[in-house]
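Posted in: Protein Modeling Q&A

I'm a second-year student putting together a small comparison for a lab meeting, and my supervisor asked me to include a predicted structure for RibD C-terminal domain protein. I've never done this before, so apologies if this is the wrong subforum. The sequence is pasted below exactly as I got it from our records. If anyone can share the structure token output, I'd also love a short note on what stands out.
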Amino acid sequence: MSIVTTDMAMSLDGYAAGPRQRREAPFGDGPSGEITRWMFDAAEANSAELEAVTGAAAYIMGRNMFGPDRGEYDLDWRGWWGPEPPYHAPVFVLGHHEREPLTLSDTTFTFVTGGIHEALDLAREAAGGGRIDIAGGARTVNQYLAAGLIDEIRVHVTPVIMGEGTRLFEGARGVRLEQVAARGSDLVSHITYRVLRD
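Accepted answer (user: helix_wrangler)
Welcome! Here is the predicted structure, written out as tokens:
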């Protein structure tokens, strides 16, 4: 069976995005750009982590992770990344509005309205036993974590305090973790945890 992981970049105080996310500010207001700076300014030094982020056999993401619009989809919107998404596997986007699948390069985005379990079933089928990554955002990860559906958490913690926004781990009370790896630099600390089952 597929292992389910998540990779989340976050601030030292646990925020994965600042407040007021919108088209002009995908990660919201405040110093939110700091939490992903390591991906761009130090890509070579963090290549193993970046390869892990983009190396899943299928992905699940929330509506905010795909785009800024609410309500019916803006059918001209192709995602924050443009015509070449960083995902090279099927992506299942959670939402409340239907949309036909969207294929960009070698990635097909399938829009799922039946909730987290339906998306996971579809991702398991698409992954064929390979790893499934809950790509974000924080609210989506929190739902999967609270439901006991994540096996491994990889957090990428940057030394910035945001103070507000969307926080990772909200609503995931009582989840027990075992640290299995850690490595870092001045821009980021990468910490991997296994989720312990009772």
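A couple of things worth pointing out for your meeting: Residues 116-127 form the longest helix (12 residues). The chain has a mean pLDDT of 93.
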